[in-house]
């Protein structure tokens, strides 16, 4: 059997065309160059303050938020646990929240006991409060840094507290 180069070439071209026609594109169509690329966080608004007028602390990848308020006169610091939208209360079984601050180069730990709100179910709290002058002044310090630690739904969360995140009342 004699096969010419033309026959082999025809088979190669036909096979290649068949392979290409069967392969669908898995790539997304190119973005419209006239439109900016969507931002990852553009799908939701970031509230500036919580429902109690306090400053928000992000917990996880915005899975939850904590809202911190403080009163300079009474030295009461209150932390509310909120949902991802920073609107609804999130009651937890914790009896206290822990705030670790660095004050004058030294680590200091504060434990805020649970103070359930009326809407919290029995045995749970979404509000934690402590009257402590060192804590209140510490979160207002020029170089205040700290972390809030809490367990929500059997998972530990930590949020960063930095100077400038809060308002004075």
Strand and helix order: HEEEEEEHEE
Question: What is the fold-level CATH name, i.e. the topology of the domain at 50-162?
Answer: Immunoglobulin-like
Broad shape: globular
Distance between the termini: 97 Å
Provide the gyration radius in Å.
29 Å
Low-confidence runs (pLDDT<50, min 5 residues)? Answer: 16-42, 165-169
CATH architecture of the domain at 50-162: Sandwich
Mean model confidence by pLDDT = 78
Biggest pleated-sheet summary? 4 strands, antiparallel
- Please give the share of residues in helix: 10-25%
Distinct helical segment count: 2
Name the structural class.
alpha+beta
β-strand amount:
25-35%
Strand segment count = 8
What's the arrangement of strands in the largest beta sheet? 1-2-3-6
Top-tier CATH class of the domain at 50-162: Mainly Beta
Task: Provide structural commentary.
This protein is α+β, with helices and mostly antiparallel strands and 169 residues long. It has a domain of 113 residues: Immunoglobulin-like, CATH 2.60.40. It contains two helices and eight strands, in the order αββββββαββ. The protein has a four-stranded antiparallel sheet with strand order 1-2-3-6. It is globular. The protein starts with a helix and ends in a 7-residue tail after the last strand.
């Amino acid at each position: 059997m004699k096969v010419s180069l033309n026959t082999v070439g025809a088979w190669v071209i036909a096979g290649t065309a068949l392979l290409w026609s069967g392969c669908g594109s898995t790539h997304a169509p190119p973005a419209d160059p006239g439109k900016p690329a969507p931002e990852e966080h553009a799908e939701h608004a970031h509230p500036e303050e919580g429902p109690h007028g306090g400053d928000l602390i992000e917990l996880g990848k915005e899975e939850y938020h904590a809202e911190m308020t403080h009163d300079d006169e009474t030295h009461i610091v209150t932390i509310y646990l909120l949902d991802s939208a920073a609107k609804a209360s999130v009651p937890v079984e914790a009896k206290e929240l822990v705030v670790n601050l660095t004050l004058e180069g030294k680590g200091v730990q504060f434990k805020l006991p649970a103070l359930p709100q009326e809407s919290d179910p029995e045995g749970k709290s979404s509000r934690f409060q402590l009257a402590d002058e060192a804590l209140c002044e510490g979160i207002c310090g020029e170089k205040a840094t700290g972390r809030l630690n809490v367990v929500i739904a059997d998972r530990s969360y930590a949020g960063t507290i930095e100077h400038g995140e809060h308002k004075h009342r």
